[in-house]
Amino acid sequence: MPFDILLGDTFDLAFANGDFVTGESTRQHQQLLLLVEKGELKEFPTRGVGIATWLLDDVTGNLNGQVKREFEADGMKVLKVAGAGEKFNVEAIYES
Fold first, then answer.
1. Domain of 55?
2. Phi, psi angles (nearest 5°) of residue 91
């Protein structure tokens, strides 16, 4: 399980008592991988699903397969990817 600096609901750094909030960050990593478009992460330009593009545009392809590939590339074991549109569900864990 990754332990990292956490972000708030609006993806700004989370603070408590004048310091960064840290904690288990698997869910946060998953959210960020789903949201970012390829090219948006300077250090890893080929990473990201860009789910907004999939949902808002007429993108052809396999969204579930793309999510699985991206999560696995980040070191997760993907247990389930199912659904489409607003009924999208992913279960994945980081392998130790």
1. 3-94
2. -120, 120
Cα–Cα nearest to 67, from 30, 38, 28: 30
Residue 35 half-sphere exposure, CB side, CA atoms within 13 Å?
A: 8
- Please state which of the ranges 2-11, 27-36, 83-92 shows the lowest mean pLDDT: 83-92
Total-model pTM: 0.83
Number of domains making up the chain: 1
38 backbone dihedrals φ, ψ, rounded to 5° = -55, 135
Distances (CA, A) of 9 to 31, 58, 82: 11, 28, 24
pLDDT, one tens digit per residue, over 18-63 is 999 999 999 999 999 999 999 999 999 999 999 888 878 766 678 8
